[in-house]
Structure formats: structure tokens, C-alpha cells
Amino acid sequence: MNQRLTQTAAFWQNDFQITDEATDALYTHFVEKGKPCSIDELGLFFVQKALEDEEKSLRAELAQGKIYQPNETYAVGDTLIFTKYNYAAGTVTATRPGFHPEYGDFTVLDVAFKDQNVTASFAADFSTPHALTDASSAIGQNEDGSSKTAQILAEHRQVILPKIEKALAANANFVHFNHHWFLADMLVEIQEGLLNIVDAAIDINAGPLDVTALVEQLELDGKGATPEAIQFSVNYMLDNDPRFLNVGLPGQPMWYLQRLKPPQISHPPHNLIVPEGLTFDPDSLAPDIRALLSAIDDEATPVEFARPIDPDADEVTFVLNYPHRRSGTLPVLPAVEALLPDIPDDRVLALQFVDGQTGEEMVGWYVRRHRYIFGFGDWFANHQLPVGAFVVLKRTDDPLKMVVNYVPQRTLREWVRVATVKNNQLAFEMRNRQLSCRYDELMVIGEEGSDAIDELWQRTAEKNTPISVLIDRIFPELLKLTSQGAVHTNTLYSAINVARRCPPGPLLQELSNHPRCEWMRHGYWTFKIAE
């Protein structure tokens, strides 16, 4: 059987277009169904329309004459359809005897193709079996139906779907939301007063609401439209109103108010911003030093050096550092990102977090672009979690809900490093603190005088104080708290980040190049105090 045009990649890449006839058919489809369609559903609709149009065209061609088959007899004036040549029609203008020493006698047909303005010769009365014999299956033998339509769309969706969206976007009859399309004329009318009700409902809820909850608030069920049309209309109206912000997944929109949006989801907290130019060359680090990159939980560490991800894990445990503790945020490490819902863009996502200790719920704002989740300042404070605490995130069956927890222990009084400000410099002391959570002993830090530390951070940032200078100031402070004469990399990282944001990579490079720092192996460094 000869291949139809719609069975070729060239047709869908070059020839397939969304015609006015096709959009008119879609208009009728929407009127009959009364509900919106996803872009994939529209892909199937337009592919099926193209197949049907091709079928009609072939039937029209075949109505002009007979399908050419070499074993048949034809006369001058007969119109023949040649499946081999894309169902071109030709007229027999002359016949003459032919002979082949192997196949014997047959008839030669001269056929004129009017559209192509050419004449060609073909065999007739050819009794020997031939590949073109019984090729009359031009109609009916092409695979059609939903399976063929779906197969074509699957193979050529990257070409077909953009053409559809471009054509519909240029047609005022159609409107869209989240790659779903509908008729502008069939949108449920939503007055300004109803939008004010939506505003108030979200405000009272103190968190995002999905479209189902909003439809209930608006009492739109009696408008005579399908539920799908009502939900689409609400989503479309909110998406085009600057007061509202979609903070949900593409297939699960959640609506919030721009005026209530925390500023920290538009602009990263200053403690999380890595200073410009603070980079490092991994190849410059000795292999055993470079291996320390994966031992520190920091979202700024290149993914190839981060802690390996367990793709089957339902939870992840990490150590809370000072920048995130002070900012009320959680780092989106590669292992954390593996637990989060996949989103195709840099939108802000509102996630529901359940406190693993109390069962209380809170909103966490996933800022994918900057790799953090904001909204945990009160949670840290309520549970008195220090820098260095182990935090646990666990996924649930709902992609928009997670459990956040820490590792509890019997409340004990422990001696821990405490950061303070003395003589306008960051200082550290060992103090007795009451702790009721598990923590990393190398990274645990308490703080005394948060405002003073914030002011010190600001001065450090304004002066763009080099990390090497901070090492000179902070390393001796840590060294005096230990009897070992050495300080672990993780401790240095935790302390340096109280004064300025510094990922592990740049810190390790600075330590390796610092004239007073000496690598002692097993993660430890010593510091030569100037005499």
C-alpha cells in the first residue's frame, strides 16, 4: 500500500496548517461539548481533522476514474488514478502492443497528467504478478481511529502543538489558561463583585485556595454551564486580574493575593545571596579536600559535587545552616528537589507543610529559581531549633503537601558554640544551652544578639569583606574553643556563614590558598597565629 501524506514527517513539519475550516469545526465542537480542552486534546482533534480531510480528498480523486492496476485492460479516454504518484489522475491518450521476452505480451498505455503537464507510459494487460496489482486499497486500508491519531500526535507533538497554540492565540474566538482552551463566548460571566468575594475568601483563609473552593464561594453552579466551563472561567478571570497570583501546579492551580505575597518570595533574603564573584575552581582542590563538598548541605554547591540522591527515597534529612535559620527558609538541595513536585517554569509554588511534631499546617513558598522554601521562621523559633539541627522533609501522596520535622531528643543542657558581637567583630564562646533536638556537633551554633549580628552582616556586605579576611578573624575564635589545635571544615563553614554567605566550594578554595591555614586531613585545618 502506498504511503499517505499524513503518514510522513514532512507533512506535519511543513504542510500541516490550522485552517479556517478547522477552527470553525473546533468552534462547533466547543459549542456541542460545552467544556474546555487541553492542548493534547486539541492535538488529537486537529490530527483527526487532517486525516478526515485527506480521506475526503482521496475519495474525490477516486471519483474521477479507476485505480490503475497493471493486470487490467484500459481504453483511450479512460481516467486512471495512480496511487504511486500521490493519487494523481491521468487520461489514457494512446495504447500500443508491448512485449517482454520474460513476461510475454502486454499493452503499453500513454497517460497524460494534466496537472503536471507530462505524459508517461504504463503497462496494462500484464498477467504476471506485480507489486502494484491490487493496490486499490487507497480507501479504507489506512490505519485510522483513535489509535492512529494518538500515534501521529505522539510522534510529532513538538511540531503540531505549537502550530495549534499559535493559530488559536491569533483568533479572538478562543481563550486559554494553563494550556487549556475554550470559547470566549462560552465563558461564565463573573462580575467585579464576585472577584471581590474571591479576594475576601483568600484573605480570610490566610493562604491559597483552589478553584473548587472558590466556585463554592461564588455559588456559580446554577449558571447552566458545565462544571469544567465554570472552573475554567474562574481560573481565566483570576489569571487575567493583577490582584491574583497562581501559586499552584499547572494542572492544580492555587490562587493567592498579590498584596499578601511575602516579599521574600520575590526577593531572596539577604542572608541567602551569594556575593557576586564568589566562585571556585573544583580542579584546584586536592581530591580529599574536594570530597568534603558533599559532606556539607548547601544548595549553592554544584549538583555534581552534592550529596548523591536516592531516587526511591520518600524523605531526606539535612543540616540547617545559619543563613537559612536566620531567613526562615529551607534549602532546596538536589535531594530535597527530588521530593518536590516538578514544575516547568520558575513560578513560585505554595506548598502545605505539616508539622511532624504537632500536626499543625503551614504554608511554605517554594522559590525554585533561587532554590529555597520560605515560611519557617516561626517553626524554627517555636521548636527552638539551633543552627546545626537535623531537619527532615517527607513527601505525602499529595504533591502539594509535605511533612516537615526535626529529630527530637530528651531535653538536655549542652555546651555549644555561641556567636556574639564584641568590639564590632564576630566572636564565639562556649555556653550552656538547653536543646531538645538532634544536631550536628560540628555545625551547631547558638547566637546571642541577633540584631547586632545582622548589623555586622550588613557592614561586612557593604565593605565586600573578602572571605580570607573573615578566616583571619573567625578561625582563631574557633581555635580557642578546642583543645585539638585544629578546626573541622564543617565548623568553619557554619561559623563563616554567620558573618557572610559563603558556599563550601569558595571556602575550601580560600582555606587551601590561605598562607596561615594548614590542611591536617580528615576534614581538619589548623591556623598559624601571627606572633
Descriptive overview:
The chain has 531 residues and is α+β, with helices and mostly antiparallel strands. The protein has 5 domains: 5-62 and 141-181, no CATH class; 70-124, Thrombin, subunit H, CATH 2.40.10; 187-261, Winged helix-like DNA-binding domain superfamily/Winged helix DNA-binding domain (Arc Repressor Mutant, subunit A); 300-410, DNA-binding pseudobarrel domain (At1g16640 B3 domain, Beta Barrel); 412-527, no CATH class. It is 33% helix and 25% strand. It contains 15 helices and 24 strands. The relative contact order is 0.08. Mean pLDDT is 90; it is low at 134-144.
Please outline the helices and strands.
Blueprint (H helix, E strand, L loop, with lengths): L8 H7 L4 H14 L3 E2 H24 L3 E2 L11 E4 L5 E13 L3 E10 L4 E7 L20 H25 L4 E4 L2 E4 L8 H14 L3 E2 H8 L8 H13 L4 E3 L7 E4 L29 H4 L24 E5 L2 H6 L1 E3 L2 H4 L10 E8 L5 E7 L4 E3 L2 H6 L7 E6 L5 E6 L1 E15 L2 E13 L8 E2 L2 H14 L3 H13 L7 E2 H11 L4 H10 L3 E5 L2 E4 L4
Parallel strand pairs: 2-3, 14-18, 19-21
Antiparallel strand pairs: 1-8, 3-4, 4-5, 5-6, 7-8, 9-11, 10-11, 12-17, 13-16, 14-15, 15-16, 17-18, 19-20, 22-24, 23-24
